[in-house]
Amino acid sequence: MNCSNNHFYKKGILLLFFVLITSYFYGAFAAQAEEEMDVLRLFYKEKDLVVSATRHPKPISQVAENITVVTAKEIEEMNAHTVAEVLNRIPGLFVVFGQGTGSFGSASLIQTQGSTSRHVLVQMDGVAWNLLSSGAPETNSIPVGIIERIEVIKGPASSAWGSSLGGVVNIITKPAGTAGKPAGSVSASYGEKNTQDYRAELLGEEGTVGYYLYAGRQYSEGQMSSRDFETNNFYSKFRIPLSENVTAGLSMGYSDPQTGLGDFPTGDIRSTSSSRTFFTTASLDASLTRELDLNISFHHFKQRINIMNNALGLGVLGTPGEFYSDSLYDEETTGGSAKLVWAHGVHTAVFGMDAEHGKLDQTLVSGTYLQSWGVPATSATYPGIDQWAIYANDTIVIDRWSITPGIRYDHNSITGSFASPSLGIAYRLGEDSIVRASVARGFTIPPLSATSGGGLFLDPNSSLKPEKVWSYQTGVESTALRYLWAKATVFRHEIKDVLKREASAGGAPAFNDLYINSGASRRQGIELEAETVPVYNLSLRSGFAYVDINPATEYGAAGIYTWNIGLNYNDKKSFRAQLFGHYAWWDLGSASRASYDDFIWDLNLNKKIYSNELIATDLFLTAHNIFNGSQYVLGDIQNPKRWVEAGIRFSF
Predict the structure, then answer these.
(1) Its pTM surpasses 0.70
(2) Which long-range contacts (CB under 8 A, 24 or more apart) does 6-14 make?
(3) Domains of the chain and CATH, by start
(4) What is the tens place of the pLDDT at every residue in 290-332?
(5) What is the pLDDT of residues 195-220, one digit of tens each?
(6) Under the phi-then-psi rule, with left for phi > 0, alpha for psi from -120 to 50, and beta for the rest, what region is 13?
(7) Taking Cα atoms as reference points, which of 449, 467, 458, 430 lies closest to residue 163?
(8) CA Rg, the chain, in Å?
(9) C-beta atoms surrounding 585 within 10 Å
(10) How many Cβ atoms from other residues are within 10 Å of residue 40's Cβ?
């Protein structure tokens, strides 16, 4: 821990210096800042209503949960190519990039406040993006161009969403158009190593039917060797009024990421991934009375992932290119939801139910090297799961108080039943401060590969129980300090029946592992955020998150933390600039050969070169990792050094 503390203090001194300079700078220009105070007087000006806390829109001032919202405008300004890039800027989220931080189209693992990735539920259009096989979500199949906003709840959201011990990333896509005149945008960017990103979107209304259409393509030869990436995305959404009080909705999406996962010299492996994702949804919204609304929705989701491994030829597994293994996962889920919302007086009550059937076809093909260890040439399993749930919550607003009790009852065919109660309170201190507190019980069910599918050197364990948590969070958000918005949150998560992969549990082939419920764990920590008002068009933002983990993880991590520092310039006419620095301390042992001594700094520039009533044209440029920092958790997956891209965007 001494090494961790030294790094902690070093980064702390840097942030303190940043704050002192900021305070001096803003004190000098207080008169001009006074004119900008309205920017911060409204909490989350662009993010007024959120749906994730109770599954129904409510003002963020009434939300008790620890929630962060990122808008489409912010995503565009950071020139993000993937959802993971966006999430990596949120304090309290820890993102592990499978091809290294800053790799174009990189696979990723998302963690909240020290949780594992399987604890985080990712939803888009009401469809869960988590893999049945591993439980973890993979978001590089979601095009960022279709996103209206991302709502992130840090901490269990099981009383509304079910299996989500660590939190929820709820992705809300752009709405169908409401005007007869079509609108949209077309953009293209090009960078080093033949890195390309093309996007086109169109929205409008034909008769009474609103539509939103999107197509995109990304390609890169890889900023690092063997980490190429290619994907094509298509998405459509339609709004169909059936009567004055009834509206139907349809959406459909397709994506096919092809990813070079990289070379792993320590294992003599080169790994690639090929996947296809298709989903469709249908919904019906009806206003039954002035106080009662009904929503019914259905979804179908298919995902096929193929992970292929071949020998590098370093003398461990065989000759270069020799086949090692092929893991194929065909996943399919079909489900639906129904929800009633009753708004009367001080109450906004939500009553709902969810049901879903999922099946996994898992096939493992092994080469001669693995077969020599007793692994069969081909093995296949076909596990499935049935789930249903009922839930209810009520937002009770009395004067400055917003009280939200909630409860959900889940049942699935693998681990049985679970009840998730929660209670949240938000209190407004005057016009410029909000105090929040919440207590919640949550859970995450074990993935199908752990319970019934098995895997390479892994036996299934059908007796696994869900991981459970009691979570406590409290925080304050305020603009009471002159020219400054600030937010602070403290949290404590007490987890039981933690899943652990136990080595050498027996079975054939020899030395197979087994997942077990290993006991208890505690995660606690703090998050801090601050943002200044613009002064001479310049504003600053900083964030910090620290998590103490006891006992330490299997990788030896007992204290992890992140720093975020952002500098924004916007002349409100034609030019924007953004400098963003991110640092993560992972507290890993020497065996991983990790390196995370540096901030990763990215610079984004945007210049509007033409604009009239019909069309606007922007040029943009991004320099990634401008100081060639090192930030990676595995020696075999080092992050790219500095690379640059530029592009053009037409909006009409």
Answers:
(1) yes
(2) 7/585, 7/597, 8/546, 8/559, 8/561, 8/585, 11/561, 11/563, 11/583, 11/585, 14/563
(3) 2-651 (2.40.170.20)
(4) 999 999 999 999 999 999 999 998 877 878 889 999 999 999 9
(5) 999 999 999 999 999 999 999 999 99
(6) alpha
(7) 467
(8) 25
(9) 21
(10) 22
